[in-house]
User: Fold these one by one.
Assistant:
Number 1:
Amino acid sequence: MDLFDSKDTLIEEANKAYNQGNPVLTDPEFDLLAETGLKVDTRNFRTKVAHPFPMGSLSKIKDAESLSKWAKGATGTIIGPKVDGAAVRLSYRDGRLVQVATRGDGVTGNDITGNARNCVVSETLPYPLTLEIRCEAVIRKCHADKFEKNLRNVVSGMLGAKDPRPELALVEFLAIEIVSEDPLTLAAKRDLLREICMKELTVPSVIYDQAPSFDEIEELFNSWKQNFPWAIDGVVVEKFHDLHAMVEKETELLPKHKVAVKFGNEAAVTVIEEIDWKLGQHGKLTPVLQIRPVEIDGTTVSKVSASNYALLKSAGLGVGAEVGVVKSGDIIPYVKEVHTPSQEGLDIPSCPSCDTQATLSSTGIDALCSNPECEGATLVRLQRQFDLFGIDFISGSTIEALVAAGHDSLEKIFSLSESDIAALDGFGRKSAHYIVTSLHKIEVTEAKVIKSAFLKGIGERKGTALLNHYGNLDTMIATIKEQGMTSIEGFGPIQTDLLNTQIGLIETQLQLYRSLGIKVAPHTAPAKDAKTVCCTGSCPGKSRKELKEVLAEMGFVMASSVTKDCCLLLCDDPEGNSSKLTKARKLGIEIKSYEDFFENQ
Ligand SMILES: [Zn+2]
C-alpha cells in the first residue's frame, strides 16, 4: 500500500490537514513539493474552471550573467516587486465581479468566488468593462503573528477551504495587470489598471529605458522588501520594445518577455547518504537525512530533518538523491530543491528501538512502529508525560534508566520509594531523594491534563479554549460524554469528532493523575465581561508573562494587537511613535503609561 507515489496526492492531503488545523508538512516542505509542479490546487470539492486566457508562471533568473543574456536587445523594461502571494484572476463582466479563480495548472484553476467575496475585493469597477485583473492574493506582514504558517500558504489554504474562515477579511488582492479581449497598448493597460483599482492595492512598477544591472535590481528588491506591507520574494522584469504598440494576447504558460529575478538563499548542493528514523510519540518514525557534510553560513551541516515518510517518498528523497540544502540564520536546515531524485527508492523503515518493520498510517503519511511491546515507544510516551510535568531533576536519561529497570509506567515510577530508587544502578541517596520529593510536588493545570491525552491537534491552547467554554474539566468531560460536544469556535469537524470519540482518554488521564496524588489546579476562566487591553514597550519590574497575569487578576485580557475592541493601550512612553501607539491614536483608544495605570489602581 503506497499512497504517495505522486506529489499531488500529498499536497492535496497536506492542504486538507492544514485546513483542519493539523499541518503535516512544514512551509519549506510544502514549497519543495509545489515548486516544480503547477498542480497545487487539487482540492477535489472545488469546481474546476477553464481560464479564458492562460495564466502563465515565470521562469527564474538568479545571477547577473543570465539576466544580461535574457535582456539583450531590450529597449525598455518594466520592473516591479514579485509579491509572494497566491496567484488568482478576478473576472469582471460589464463592470461586475463574476468569478474569481486560482491559477491551478495555468489552463484550469479552481473557482473560489464564494470565499473571495469574504476578502477585501471590489464587487464593481468604475466603468462597465469586461476584463480580468491578474492579482496576488495576500495578507499584510503585520498580521503574520496571528498565523503559525507562511502567509502565502495561509492565503491559499483559506481561499481553497470548503468553509469560509473569518480571517478571509484580511486577504487583499494586489492588482498586477489587466488581460482583456480588446487589444490595448502596454501603456494603456498600465493607465487603466491604475484608474480602476485602488492605488494602494496596485503593485508598483518602474519603467527603465534599458535593462538595469543585476545590482540595481537587487537594490530595488531590498528597498521594496523593507517598505512594502506585503512579503515579496523577488523582482519581476518585463521587457518591451514600444510601450505604445498593441500587446499580443498572451498564450504562453511560460512567457518569454517576463522573468522573475531572485536573490540570496543559495542552496548548497549535496547528496543524501543515509536515512535514520527517530521514534516519537504514538510510535511515529520521523526521518533524519544524513547528508554528505556541506559548509553553509560558516557551519557544517551533516543532517537535515524532514516531517514524514510520505514527503520523502513523494519528493524522491532517498539514498543517493542530489539535493539543495538551505540554512540561514537560526533556522533549521532543510531541503529546498531536489536535483536528482533517489534511484534506490525508499523502503518502509524498521523501528530503531525494536527493529519491527513499520506500518503506514491510514492516511499513508507516517511510518509507525505498531509493536505494542516496543520499549522505545514506551520510553517516548513516558518522556512526553514528564516533559509536560516540567521537573528539573528528572531528565531523559533518568527516565531511560527507570524504564530499563522495569519501571515503565507512571504508576510504577510513582510507587517507588527513596530506597527503591537508591538501590538502582546509577542512582545515589541524594538523587533518589530529589526524585521522590519532586514527584510529590507535581502540580498541573486542567489544560495540561487535556494535553496529556495527546489527541492530535489538542494542545494546551485548545485545552484552555475548551475549559473557557465548559468552565472546568469535570463539567467538560461529563457534558461531552452525555450530550456530545457542541460547535465551539476554533474547533473544526475533525477535532470535534476526535473529542467526542476520545473524551474517555482525557478522563482516564485525569483519574490517573488524581490517583497518583498529582495536584490538578482548577481552571479559572476569564470573566465574561473582561476588558481588553493592549501593551507596548517594556513594563518596569514585570515580564510580559507577569504583566499578563497581573492584568488578568484585575479583570483585563491582554490582546496582542490594537483593535477597536481594546479599551486601553498601556505603554512605557505615551509620547512614543510605535505602530501600536499610532494605531491607538487613530482609533481614539485611551493611552496610559504603566506607571500611571498601576499607581491609580
Ligand atoms: Zn518499535
Note: Residues 531-599 form a domain with the Rossmann fold fold (CATH 3.40.50.10190).
Number 2:
Amino acid sequence: MSWLKRSKEGLKTPQRKRELPDGLWTKCEECGEILYQKELERNLWTCTKCSYHFRIPARTYVKILLDEGSFVERFSEVVSTDPLRFRDTKRYADRLKKAREETGLSEAILVGEGTIEGRPLVIGVMDFAFLGGSMASAAGERIARGILLSLEKRHPLVLLSSSGGARMFEGILSLMQMAKANALLARLSDAGVPYISIMTHPTTGGVTASFASVGDVILAEPRALIGFAGPRVIKQTINQELPEGFQTSEFLLAKGMIDRIVHRNELRKTLSWLLQFFAAAAMLPQKPRRRAGETLARFRAVGGPIAQTAAPPPKPPEEAPAPGVPLREFQPSATQGPNGVPAAPSGETPAEAPKETPGSTPGGSTAFPADREIPIRE
Ligand SMILES: [Zn+2]
C-alpha cells in the first residue's frame, strides 16, 4: 500500500481546538481540572490548579499588557496577497479570507504603539489563530516597520511570539522575512534601543530561528514549546530518545537560552520593571559600542582563531592593523560629549548616573537619548 495515498475515503481531519473556551465551565487541557469561566478569565486564562496557559488572541495580550486605551494599531494596511497563486487542498487566498473572518485580524501579527505604566513602547503580538501565527511577507513587513518605528522614536520594542514558523504558502518571500527582521534588529541594537522578546506556546520554526531568539531580554511563558523543528520530528530524524522536558521554556532556561520564565499574571509587571530598568540604564554614561567590523578587526589584531585559520581578505593598511598593533579606540561622534555621554541641553551639566532608588520612576518621556549616530553594520 502506498504511504502517500489515503486508502479510505471520508477520513476526517480533527477540527482545530477553539482558541478561547466559552461557556460556563472549561476543562484544563493539562490537568483536567474543571475551571469556572469567570475565574479563568480573572486569572488571565491560566489554570488555577496547574498554571497551564491557555492560548489567547493577540488583542487579549494587548489588553493584558498595555495601559488601558493606550494602544494604537499601526501598519494594518500591510496585508498578505497571494503572490504565488498557491493552492494545496484549498486556495491560499481562501485560507487568508477565512483566517481574517475568524480572528478579526488582517495578518498574523498585530503591531502598534502603547504604554505600560506611562512608558511608551512599540509592540508586536503574534496570533496563533491566524494561520498558525505564520510569518509571511506582510507579517514580516509589519515587524520591519515596527522596528523602524522603534528606531525612529527610540522607544523600546516588545515582540510577543506565538508561531508555527514561516508561512509555506508564500515560499521564499516568507523565508526572507527572517533575515529582514534580524538585519533591522541589529540596527536597533547598534542604536542602543532595547528589544524584549516574549516567547509563548508555541514559538517554533523561522520565528525562533530569527527575531524571537535575539532579544536583549528573552522572556517565556511557562511550559511553552520553543524550538525550530518539533520534538517528534527531531526524534524521528535522529532516532534517539530526547531528554525529558526537551524544548520547553524550563529546559531552555536551564540551558541558558532564555532569561526568565514569567507567569502571564506577572508579565505586565515584569515588562514595566524592564522598561524602567532600561530607561535608567540609558541615562548612565556609556562607552560607545564598537561596530561589528571593528570587533572583527580587533579580534584579528590579537591573533584570534579567524586569523589563524583563514587569511584575512586584503585591505588597505589603515583598515587592517598588523597583528600586535593596538586597535584605535572608537571615537565618539561630534554629537557626543566626553565618554560618549550625550551632549547635555544648554544650562545643564553633562548626564550623570541618575540617583534613583529601585521603584522610583524617572518621570516624563522614556525615549532613549539619541546619543550616537546609528552605525550601519558592514
Ligand atoms: Zn490545569
Note: Residues 304-312, 319-364 have pLDDT under 50 and may be disordered.
